[in-house]
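ERR on first pass: missing label on line 2. Operator R.T. fixed the label and resubmitted. Corrected input:
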Amino acid sequence: WCKSAFTGTLPEIPGPVPNVDPWNPSHDYDYDLIVIGGGSGGLACAKEAMTINPDLRVCLLDFVKPSPAGSKWGLGGTCVNVGCIPKKLMHTAALYGDYARDAALYGWEGGVTKNHSWQTLRDNTQDHIKGLNFGYRVELREKGISYLNKLAKFVDAHTLEVSDKKGSKTITGARIVVAVGGRPSPLQCEGAELAITSDDLFMKSEAPGKTCVVGAGYVALECAGFIQGLRQAEVTVLVRSILLRGFDRDLTATVHSALLHHGVNIREGVMPASISRQDNGRLLVKMTDGSEDEFDTVLAAVGRYADSPGLNLEAVGVRTDPKNGKIICVNEQSSVPNIYAIGDVVHGVPELTPAAIKAGILLAHRLFAESRELMDYSKIATTVFTPLELGTVGLTEEAAIDKYGAENVDCVMSSFQPLEWTVAHDNHEGTTCVAKIVIRTDQDKEVLGIHIAAPNAGEIIQGLAVAFRKGLTHRDLLGTVGIHPTTAEEFTTMKV
Ligand code: FAD
Ligand code: NDP
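pass 2 clean. output:
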């Protein structure tokens, strides 16, 4: 491309030009809409389409390919089975351990330091998930959506081959939405197959025990946090570069200290060189710095890839990013006019459940209710559920400076201890929470970003995210009368 730019024969790069969907309501296809993938986005899109028009013929396909370690699960996708739900429940279990420890200083006597039972936590979590799996199936049946527990693959732009162990057949659809999500990327070192991933952790029959977590993103730090919090055995995190790339650095430094305070070992710049099974059944990890250690579990949390290989997308003309297999879309429409995509499989959108759901609902309205409302992926709040949660919406200080220049950006920040920690101060000594507001100085003190590392950060940031979307200014925050004594109140008093 570069060469041809200089020689003057620059070819046209196929651009992301929106296409006209050749929708004809009196088509001859089996279905008006086929959704591939029964996760957060796919379920939302299929159900919304039927709510808009109960006469539509909608089919939802969902098939779970077992993980390399053999784990599989039911309808509902990543979030319900191997993501948000089990993760948040296990995070909560770990927090109960912290509360129990603090409880002694609040006057509760005895019984709070007994061992944690992984089996009880796992069974109760899995029971809840099975209830959700069943609920989704019932909901699909009640709405009149055809649910096929089959693996889909494109034959042409309107035809899918769908298969299970009993065989395969083809079905056709006027419009097809791809919502196949992603799967964890494997490790690349010798013996990588001995590591498990988040696809296996939550349903593991034995407690993870002494664990080596590889990676330093959301999944790695959340899992390291709750495994350590269950106080089964020590947890070591191997970090290739930095913790939580893309988050505000003041906040990640706070989360880092809190993880250390919780007892997690964090080894920066160290990776596994090899993993091997010992005679005692444990896993020997040799590290890139020459050190080695034995673990019960190695958890690979080094990112996720789009689950698009095997869909035969390129053969039908759907453009994907060769680096990660994600589908290139304009407003959820792919390069093939009747094929759409939502959720984690879409190139350049946040990999978050509410983003997938909202995109699916809005798409259903544009396809079947003549809506023009587009999905807005900006200003989406998110929280990392580490022992000290990190909630954030908007720009980090670094990103704000890049965008608006250092002279136009100011930050107010507060380092504090929540009231709840003061009575149990022995357990929290040396740790702090941090709240930070990034402000644009040249624009009426418009808030560019809000960040907090504190207990319940997810709950705090969700409320503020609404005000943020509406164009919140620092003056609005200072003009708000706080709720005392809360942690969120911090945002109404920060001036320095
Ligand atoms: P998925 O939910 O992954 O669903 C895709 C479905 O398609 C799957 O069931 C899959 O089996 C099926 N499928 C794939 N290929 C085919 C095929 N060819 N034929 C038929 N079916 C197929 N997000 C948050 O917002 N908050 C959190 O706290 C959070 N925690 C997370 C924790 C973990 C450990 C992980 C891994 C993710 C977490 N996420 C969280 C991210 C969230 O789970 C995803 O963003 C969300 O599930 C994406 O939804 P989706 O519909 O795009 O895909
Ligand atoms: P992330 O992209 O967040 O993190 C990947 C991590 O793996 C980074 O620390 C990265 O390091 C590291 N890494 C990548 N490749 C290698 C390698 N070859 N060797 C060693 N380390 C490597 O991915 P996750 O899987 O943690 O999460 C995926 C997405 O799922 C998130 O972006 C988020 O959108 C969603 N999610 C949301 C949650 C929530 O809302 N609470 C919870 C969990 C997931 P480096 O920085 O050096 O590249």
